[in-house]
Structures are given as C-alpha cells and as structure tokens.
From TrEMBL:
Signal peptide: none annotated. It comes from Marmota monax. Residues 7-23, 37-65, 80-115 have a biased composition (Acidic residues). Residues 24-36, 66-79 have a biased composition (Basic and acidic residues). Residues 1-115 are annotated as: Disordered. This is Uncharacterized protein. It comes from the Eukaryota.
C-alpha cells in the first residue's frame, strides 16, 4: 500500500513536471513571438526612417536645383535690366546731343542774323 501511494505521488509529480514543462514551453513560445514582433516593428521603423531620409534628400536636391534655376533666372533678369538701362542711357545721350546741336545751330543763326 505504501508503494502504491509512493508510485501515485511520483506519478503526480511527473504530471506536474510535464505540465510545468508545457507551460514553460508555451511561455517561451509567447516570448519568442513577442520578440519577433518587436524585431519586425523595429525593422519597419528603420525602413520608414530610411525612406523618409531618401525623400528628404530628394527634396533637398530638388530645392537646390530650384535655387539654381531661380539664380539663373535672376541673373538673366538683371542682364536684361542692365541692357535696357544702357539702351535708355544711350537714347538720352542721343537726345541731349541732338538738343545741343539744335541749340548750337540756333545760336549760329542768331549770330548770323546779328551780322
């Protein structure tokens, strides 16, 4: 009878150990799954950050190209303004010269008329 009791206790202990072992395995599986999900999330986050960096770099490059384009346009506009200013100055000089010649002619005619 003592032997039977001892065998039953050993059997119960064995069953408990098995249950604990299964629980431990389930716990480990759960932890592994959580760790995998965490790794996946980190990988996704890393990928998103890289993508954002690339987009940022592209925007910077586009921005620099836009700045260069604007500078070029500004320079062309300045040259155009400069040419127009020079043309205007030349026209004014011509008008002044014509005016001076006209005045000189009138003075000459007046001088002749006085003689």
């Amino acid at each position: 009878e003592g032997q039977i009791h001892q065998d039953e206790e050993e059997e119960e202990e064995e069953e408990e150990k098995e249950e604990e072992g299964e629980e431990e395995k389930l716990k480990e599986k759960k932890e592994e799954k959580v760790e995998e999900e965490k790794d996946e999330e980190e990988e996704e986050k890393k990928d998103e950050e890289e993508e954002l960096e690339e987009e940022e770099e592209e925007k910077e490059e586009e921005g620099e190209e836009e700045k260069l384009k604007e500078k070029k346009e500004e320079k062309l506009e300045e040259e155009k303004d400069k040419e127009e200013e020079e043309k205007k100055d030349e026209e004014e000089e011509e008008l002044e010269e014509e005016e001076e010649e006209k005045v000189e002619k009138e003075e000459e005619e007046d001088t002749r008329g006085d003689l």
